Amino acid sequence: MRARVKPTRTWISRSKFEIENEEELLACRKIILRIIRYMKDNKMSQKDLAQKLNVSPQYINKLLHGQDLDLKITTALRYGRILGVKLITLPEDEPSMHHVTICYFKATTPISNIGKKHYNYTSNSLRSITTNC
Q: pLDDT tens digits for 91-100?
């Protein structure tokens, strides 16, 4: 008896779907990671989480293992309210400051020796400046 091989359409169509819906899938995975972090911080089991969210333990298992990545925004917001955490961050919730790090070295080789293809740098002369733009 021969082993059955899954048709290639299955993984090709799944891959195509993931490429076309990359942003949505990443957002859903971020939400799931926040739920997992909440569970760890509060020492909760999947069964405890299911009871708190009033859903079945099977649903929680599928959700946490990425088998149900079609999470609606309203559902994620409701879960966040119940758990008391932000599962979805909106652009106005994120800080608008950007950090820029500037590093520079202080050369210990005199300028007249720069063309000689070797440079000496003092290890304590590395400085880092972080600023908000």
A: 666 665 555 5
